[in-house]
Specification:
Strand 2 (47-52), helix 2 (57-64) and strand 3 (68-71) form a beta-alpha-beta unit. By secondary structure, the protein is an alpha/beta fold. It contains 18 helices and 8 strands.
Length: 362
Amino acid sequence: MPGTSSLRVYYDADADLGRLRGRTVAIIGYGSQGHAHALNLRESGVTVIVGLRPGGASWARAAAEKLDVRPVADAARAANFIMMLVPDQHGRAVYEQDVAAGVVPGKTLMFAHGFNVHFKQIVPPAGVDVSMVAPKSPGHLVRSEFQAGRGVPALVAVERDASGHALADALAYAAGIGCTRAGVLPTTFREETESDLFGEQVVLCGGVTALIKAGFETLVAAGYAPELAYFECLHELKLIVDLMYRGGMKFMRYSISDTAEYGDYTRGPTLVTSAVRARMQQILADIQSGVFAREWIEESRQGGPNFQRMRREQNDHLIERVGATLRAMMPWSEEGRASGLGTRGSETPSESRTPRPEPQRA
């Protein structure tokens, strides 16, 4: 296995937020990332415009925060930096219809994910800096960590350095949203895009949800109560992930029982067989070749009929129906808050269960 990387990590001392003073940043989109970037930049003293479709719900939310909200085309024309924060499948249409005319030499076009540039859905013109600042966190954490005086890690990449200072400008932007407080790692548009898609499909989303459902279905088929199966295969996953988040797999294994740890070592690897690893390699190959991107772009172009069908089917799975009933009894859950249980306390699942003390190991 490769050793520890010597990759450069950028922090506050490596970034000059002053590079954004007197310049305007347009945030195109106001979803999870968009609202966090806009509010954090404003509180960092940066002039921010939010570009949105007039009359939409996002427009009302941004206006309620007293942000300068304008139609997308107007925002793009007025800004020095244009950060595209719309969903991947809508990026090309929004860019071509409303942003492209405002992207002229001397400006910077930015992204938080390399998908559209890497797969050539968006082809920026010459004379324009093209860069990426990609927080490795959902937008609500980008915002809450900033408010707490901290930040989330991010990736930075420069696809085109027309000005000669694209990296310095991107790092200034990263500082403006708080990411240089936690550390910003350099990458490329290709590397970020392909590794991000792979992680989502094989581990973080596709792999995890498929494993949870398979475990749940196995227990239910064997006659165990669905409620019990839910707790064992889904509910307690948060405990395990939180432990790994704090100190890696080693800390998680110190914190669980010896029985669980032994089962981890002896049974876990038997699930990820050579066939599973071969499938992972094929999924990566499909990402690298553009097969997945073309499939997703075509699905979106047709209005997402398969996507919507799969969403409906998965949302109606037994694990979701059982889970909704159980979560309604938990004050911290969405269903618990909706039922009024959230007023009984603010304890979270990770706070309600303290890991056993670390055992003394020889």
